[in-house]
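Slide 14.
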Amino acid sequence: MRGYLVQPAGDGPLPAVIVIHENRGLNPYIEDVARRMAVEGFLALAPDGLAPIGGYPGNDDDGKVMQKSLDRDKLFTDLLNSARYLKAHELSNGKLGATGFCYGGGVVNKFAVVMGADLNGGVPFYCSAPNPEDVATIQAPLMIHYAEDDKRINASQEEYRKALDSHNKGFVMYTYEGTRHGFHNDSTPRYNEEQAKIAWERTIAFFKKHLS
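Slide 15: predicted structure.
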């Protein structure tokens, strides 16, 4: 695996956040999210799930085709190993947060299921939910962001909420008025500057609370 590691100014130990890309590899937008995390004081790693087949190709359309060709189980394992690498990094304080967008948000939910207490906070954006029967193993607090106009993703929102509630998990869900799937991505027409800013500020405050 290859990835984009961004270190804040100053010495460690530092809280760590892994940033998981959408369904198109490690594009400039996700690299920028990692840089923004570092500006806020986090050791940030954005792995490139396309690394085993050459890496992000330079445009999102080809990236989507490449990512679709990957074995999904192996891709998840590669990303999980990246998260474990970051948590154990010499500059890390041992506390790990994870955020991701679209496909990457689903990975964050899956991290929460499989990592247990090794994940200290998760912030998935507009993504698929885990199976309700898997929610019991989640230990990390979650902040889950949804777009208002995102029918396929939002179809599982209420079921996910009920599963988290029934197992007394720590979580908060936000749905952003007037937004579509991908509203945080400032490289696409779906970008909603006002709502993306609110979601980002909430995300940073959440990680500062749980990873310090």
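Speaker note: The longest helix spans residues 193-211.
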